[in-house]
């Protein structure tokens, strides 16, 4: 086999906070191949790309280009070595034309050449892209904006092209077009690496794969030598914990919230939502599973009332339906960091008019009630008057959860409820969510931790690319059924369900 | 206009840095440094330093009259600062203190011009009218922000000049008494002004009201649900949004309150110092008040202390001019220096990796 164009040699990456993101991973990208990097979120895919692109330096091991060791201290070093990257969030100047965006990153003679539309057009046509050099980028559809990003990464004699989850925001037809372009790029002598979690897309379009799982390589090889079942198993694994189910058997009560054919338009970094039908009833735990970035934040925003659907309807059953939230962004949305722990815990109740004494806030009563909640949720803090900023991440998360469960809301929507918590604390949180449902609350848990979802949910919806690819309940809730739904998106429901049954 | 947007975004980031609670060392350093530089300036100009310091001290705090002058100079700066800090703590950079002060001054004279001398009711009416005018002036940028997303930094800043020229127009035209050649309105009757509280001094009721308002602002921020929501909105707008609270009402009410207090600064100047509306009565009090707010770390009682310092500098400068002929413009230099030094000192400390901001408010 020829020397790979770029190689990671036994690379480990430990972040300053001690988290080991990559553990002894080796990877070789070859000219003339499209290499798929597969894995769940948190598997280490982004860290790996960032090391190739010079954003991070490896803690151990090295990067080799054509067999020679190189050190990339910053992206500029990687770019100089012929590495280009397409980020999930576009880095384009929206009011500029295609030509101007390309000229902006071009170096040397090419920059002046790119002032002429003819030269830009010739460059674009080399990759078989149908794009007007004079078009204003901000007015192009998303798929074409992405194409401009790809071309931008190819401007300076690029030998390695890295793409971070390019297909998430695309429709199935657009995905086919994307790979048609990537094949042209590959055939002109550039090694291509694509991060994705969609197995069917990988099987149809790529040449080689590497699966990452919890920072380690969990299989690599030629696409020709593998199949869908093997890849799915390598991505999600098959170790199902035998930990017991949490909470009693429940019968859902009255319907409280319904989504009918709800859609949100995709945008840079967001797959949008497509024709979501979902009915939430009192006294049930509904899990939403999926690889992160497949419509979960959009669904959360809809349920939280932060966004309105572009089409379809979202209907509350009665006026009295209230929603309590545990958002993803703890620091900006879950907490007001400079307010005290007590004020954060009781903010909604204070705003509803509780804890007043002669028109002023009754700091004594707020403190007493906060102490009870701090005790109940085992929040480790110096005092209830400490600013939330000075608590650890796990304890901050406990504040957000304690508040949501204290609000006596009819619907509680939680996003990754146990992130940052240790095992015991996570267990306590899941138990409290289950109890809330036992007592008639509708609990929606959005998480990428499937084991946790299986233990706590009555039914689980699986999302992929902004679509609901399936729903499982009862004994069918297993990694084996959910894994393919998460990773084999984009097909009509029936086909996916058949795959899941098989 | 993408260019303008990026400039205001940079301005917003800068102001946000200024709004963070500074560590006490930085603030004290800035004041100490400005005094040292001021003394150095006096020495450089060839004036006797020791006697200048004695005259300055006596001019600011030497006797009842000096103290009263200091407090009278303190009052408008304190009120503008209180107005500004309410808005800024709520996340809105109200740089329109000067304009709100000008409108408050107009409001102070309006009842007299409208109803004539109506006895003891005139003064309270003037206060209400001044606060209302300031509040309305403060509401304009708030409405523009909510309605069209206009950046309040730019709007409040530019509306200052609209207000200044509006006062100029009024005292040269509609409000100038028939036959008068001076650019000023008619004088308020004795029933309608803050009469000096102590004979022989300029101490007036506005000074006391300003300190009372400072306490009220502190209570509002720390001990009411409104204050809690205001602080949360300023520090974490995402949190407040997710709690289902509308940002719009907070924008309107905080800007109205901020404008009303800024307006009172102008009202009290008319009722307690000028007794009439007069062109150029402010000479930048609104901008100094903004400096006070930032130097005070956006704390109400901090603003009392900082504005007292500014008041002392101004009354000291008057004495220096009359006894030693040191130009009174020295007061402007000494008022400008602390905020300049604040930037320099925190810049130097930042590059050395030392903490500039305290962790929390």
Question: Can you describe what's shown?
Answer:
- The complex is a heterodimer of chains A (502) and B (361).
- With 502 residues, chain A is α/β, with parallel strands linked by helices.
- Helix content of chain A is 35%, strand content 24%.
- In chain A, the strands form five sheets. Chain A has a six-stranded mixed β-sheet with strand order 6-7-8-3-9-10, with helices on both faces.
- In chain A, strand 9 (208-213) and strand 10 (216-222) form a beta hairpin.
- In chain A, helix 9 crosses helix 17 (479-487).
- The longest helix of chain A is centred in the middle third of the chain and has 16 residues, at 172-187.
- By secondary structure, chain B is mainly alpha-helical.
- Chain B has two domains: 22-47 and 326-356; 71-325, ABC transporter involved in vitamin B12 uptake, BtuC (Orthogonal Bundle), CATH 1.10.3470.
- In chain B, helix 5 (97-115) crosses helix 6.
- The radius of gyration of chain B is 21 Å and the shape is globular.
- The interface between A and B is medium-sized, with 29 and 22 residues.
The unreliable regions of chain B are: none
Order of helices and strands of chain B: HHHHHHHHHHHHHH
The whole-angstrom Rg of chain B is 21 Å
Shape of chain A: elongated
Number of domains of chain B: 2
Approximate helicity band of chain A:
25-40%
How much is the average pLDDT of chain B?
91
Structural class of chain B: mainly alpha
Report how far apart the termini of chain B are.
36 Å
Largest sheet of chain A: 6 strands, mixed
Give the quaternary arrangement of the chains.
heterodimer
**Can you tell me the residue ranges of chain A where pLDDT is under 50 for at least 5 consecutive residues?**
490-502
Strand order of the largest sheet of chain A: 6-7-8-3-9-10
Number of strand segments of chain B = 0
Helicity of chain B, as a percent range: over 70%
Mean pLDDT of chain A: 87
């Amino acid at each position: 086999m020829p020397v790979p164009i770029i190689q990671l040699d036994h690379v480990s990456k430990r972040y300053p906070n001690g988290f080991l993101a990559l553990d002894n991973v080796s990877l070789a990208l070859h000219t003339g191949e499209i290499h798929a990097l597969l894995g769940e979120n948190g598997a280490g895919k982004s860290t790996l790309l960032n090391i190739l692109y010079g954003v991070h330096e490896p803690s151990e091991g090295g990067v080799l280009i054509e067999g020679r060791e190189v050190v990339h201290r910053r992206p500029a070093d990687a770019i100089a070595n012929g590495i280009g990257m397409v980020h999930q969030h576009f880095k384009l100047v929206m009011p500029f034309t295609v030509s101007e965006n390309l000229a902006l990153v071009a170096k040397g003679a090419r920059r002046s050449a790119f002032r002429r539309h003819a030269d830009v057009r010739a460059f674009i046509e080399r990759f078989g892209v149908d794009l007007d050099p004079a078009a204003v980028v901000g007015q192009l559809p998303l798929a074409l904006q992405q194409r401009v990003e790809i071309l931008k990464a190819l401007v300076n004699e690029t030998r390695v092209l890295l793409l971070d989850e390019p297909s998430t925001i695309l429709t199935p037809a657009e995905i086919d077009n994307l790979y048609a372009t990537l094949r042209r790029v590959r055939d002109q002598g550039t090694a291509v690496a694509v991060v994705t979690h969609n197995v069917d897309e990988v099987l149809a379009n790529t040449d080689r794969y590497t699966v990452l799982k919890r920072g380690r390589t969990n299989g690599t090889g030629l696409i020709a030598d593998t199949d869908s079942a093997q890849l799915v198993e390598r991505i999600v694994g098959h170790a199902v914990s035998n930990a017991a189910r949490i909470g009693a058997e429940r019968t859902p009560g009255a319907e409280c919230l319904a989504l009918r054919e709800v859609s949100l338009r995709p945008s840079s970094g967001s797959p949008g939502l497509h024709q979501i039908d979902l009915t939430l009833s009192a006294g049930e735990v509904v899990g939403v599973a999926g690889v992160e970035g497949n419509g979960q934040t959009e669904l959360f925003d809809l349920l939280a009332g932060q966004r309105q659907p572009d089409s379809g309807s979202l209907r509350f059953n009665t006026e009295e339906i209230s929603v309590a939230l545990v958002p993803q962004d703890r620091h900006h949305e879950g907490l007001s960091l400079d307010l005290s722990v007590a004020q954060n815990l009781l903010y909604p109740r204070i705003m509803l008019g509780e804890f007043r004494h002669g028109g002023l806030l009754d700091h004594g009563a707020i403190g007493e009630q906060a102490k009870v909640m701090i005790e109940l949720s085992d929040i480790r803090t110096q005092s209830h008057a400490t600013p939330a900023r000075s608590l650890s991440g796990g304890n901050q998360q406990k504040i957000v959860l304690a508040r949501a469960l204290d609000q006596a809301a009819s619907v509680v929507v939680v996003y990754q409820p146990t992130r940052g918590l240790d095992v015991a604390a996570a267990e306590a949180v899941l138990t409290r969510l289950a109890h809330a449902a036992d007592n008639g609350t509708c609990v929606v848990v959005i998480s990428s931790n499937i084991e946790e979802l299986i233990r706590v949910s009555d039914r689980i919806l699986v999302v992929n690319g902004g679509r609901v690819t399936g729903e499982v309940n009862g004994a069918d809730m297993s990694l084996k059924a959910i894994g393919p739904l998460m990773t084999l998106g984009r097909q009509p429901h029936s086909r996916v369900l058949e795959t899941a049954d098989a | 206009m993408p260019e303008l947007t990026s400039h205001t975004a940079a301005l917003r980031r800068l102001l946000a840095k200024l709004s963070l609670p500074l560590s006490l060392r930085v603030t004290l350093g800035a004041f100490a440094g400005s005094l040292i530089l001021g003394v150095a300036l006096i020495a450089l100009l060839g004036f006797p330093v020791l006697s200048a310091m004695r005259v300055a001290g006596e001019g600011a705090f030497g006797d009842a009259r000096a103290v009263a002058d200091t407090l009278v100079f303190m009052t408008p700066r304190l009120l503008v600062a209180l107005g500004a800090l309410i808005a800024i703590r709520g996340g809105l950079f109200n740089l329109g203190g000067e304009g709100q002060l000008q409108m408050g001054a107009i409001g102070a004279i309006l009842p007299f011009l409208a109803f004539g001398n109506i006895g003891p009711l005139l003064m309270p009416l003037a206060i209400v009218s001044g606060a209302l005018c300031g509040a309305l002036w403060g509401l304009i940028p708030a409405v523009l922000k909510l309605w069209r997303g206009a950046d309040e930094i730019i709007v409040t800043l530019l509306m200052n000049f609209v207000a200044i020229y509006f006062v100029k127009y009024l005292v040269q035209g509609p409000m100038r008494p028939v036959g008068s050649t001076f650019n000023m309105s008619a004088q308020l009757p004795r029933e309608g002004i803050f009469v000096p509280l102590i004979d022989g001094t300029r101490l007036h009721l506005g000074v006391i009201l300003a300190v009372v308002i400072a306490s009220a602002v502190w209570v509002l921020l720390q001990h009411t649900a409104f204050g809690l929501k205001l602080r949360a909105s300023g520090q974490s707008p995402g949190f407040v949004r997710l709690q289902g609270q509308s940002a719009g009402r907070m924008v309107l009410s905080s800007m109205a309150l901020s404008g009303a207090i800024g307006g009172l600064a102008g009202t009290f100047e008319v009722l307690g110092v000028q007794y009439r509306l007069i062109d150029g009565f402010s000479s930048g009090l609104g901008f100094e008040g903004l400096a006070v707010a930032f130097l005070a770390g956006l704390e109400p009682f901090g603003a009392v202390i900082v504005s007292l310092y500014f008041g002392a500098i101004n009354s000291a400068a008057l004495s220096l001019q009359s006894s030693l002929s040191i130009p009174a413009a020295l007061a402007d230099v000494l008022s400008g220096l602390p905020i300049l030094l604040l930037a320099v000192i925190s810049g130097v400390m930042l590059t050395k990796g030392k903490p500039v901001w305290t962790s929390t408010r």
